[in-house]
Structure formats: structure tokens, C-alpha cells
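Field reference: "sequence" (input) and "structure" (output). Example, ATP-dependent dethiobiotin synthetase BioD:
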Amino acid sequence: MILVVTGTGTGVGKTIVTAAVAANAVARGERVAVLKPAQTGVGPADAGDLAEVERLVPGVTTRELARYPDPLAPLTAARRAGAVPVTPAEAADVATKLATDHDLVLVEGAGGLLVRFTDEGTLAEVAALLDAPVLVVAAAGLGTLNHSALTVEALRAHGLTCAGVVVGAWPAEPDLAARHNIADLPVVTGVPLLGALPDGAATLPVGEFAELARHTLAPALGGGWHTPQA
């Protein structure tokens, strides 16, 4: 199976959610690969998103196709670096090859769904080429209902299937907006809420992270979802 992971924006927790989904699959004995087509905002020797996934989920296969130093959209960052951008076709080809010897391939995008890899290609095109469902990672607080609804609407406009929404960083002390958003997200998006990972989950040791993934993602993502307590 191939699952594409996108976000409603930058910094919403795509990588930690990707790692949690991977951890649940590894716990079931599945072979898992995580593909990051383009990593921005890191230098050649810097640890990127995949280093975090590798630390939290030992045994997972990771692939990064390109990295660019400027913290910008992949196409813009590639141009500033004088590098050739990664195309959606290249990303889809690598994901397809990984799927031949892995039970689950997770393709983590950069930023949001319509951030450009090339002049005309976005993560939506990658998902379309793969005919893969897309998991949306959202923020918890004010504004997330609009951002999430727009992302799901864009998926539908591209003929793509939305697997559901996961809150990437549920606060220890959720405010009024967050407490209402957790109930309103599935209503305004029309897709299921599939979990909410606590803020700071990335700092946990491997064993604790695996346990957290089981308890904060829904059965559709290999866990036993329960509503976070305010």
C-alpha cells in the first residue's frame, strides 16, 4: 500500500504523524518505507525529516530524492540552489519501486498539497500518478477548520481520495478553539478524524513513541484512537 501524507501548511506535524503511522505498521510486522521527495531548509550534512523518522522507528527504510538549503517551496529552493527540481513522475516512480518489496510506503510531502515541485507539478500530481489516498495533517488551533476544509476540497477537485485528518500536535492545555475543533474537523471536512498526537511526541524514546502511536491514531492507521482530554 502507498499512502501520501500532506499538511494544511508548514510545521503542522507531518513528519511525526508519518513516523507514528510507520511505527504502527512496523509493530504489526510490516516492512515500511518512507519517501521524502524533496527536503528544504537543510544543508548537505544536516539531519532532515527522515533522520527523525529513523530514530523513532528503527528498521524503517527511508529515501530522500533531493535536499535544498533554503527553507522555501521545493521548486523555488531548487532554483535558488541551481539544482534540478524533483518531478512528480520521479517521486511516483521511486514510490512504486519501493512498494514492490515493502508492505507500506509513506510519501511525505513538503508544506501543503499544492506546493510546487516543478512549474506545474505538486504533491497532488504525485498522489494522482500513484492512485494513492492522501492523509491530511492539521493544526489544532484557530484557523484549522478552514485550512483543513480547503485541503480536503482541493483533494476532491483533483479526484483524489482523502484517507482522513490527523492533528499533528495536540496541546497539553488545549484552548477553547482546539477543544471545539477536535469535534468540528470531521464535520467541516466530511472525512474522519484519525487521531491527534500530543505536542512534543518527537522527543520521546523509541519505546514510548511506539506506545503513543498505538494510543493516539485510529484503527484505520493501526492504533486505538481515543479523544484527547482537554
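The mean pLDDT is 92.
The two ends are 35 Å apart (CA to CA).
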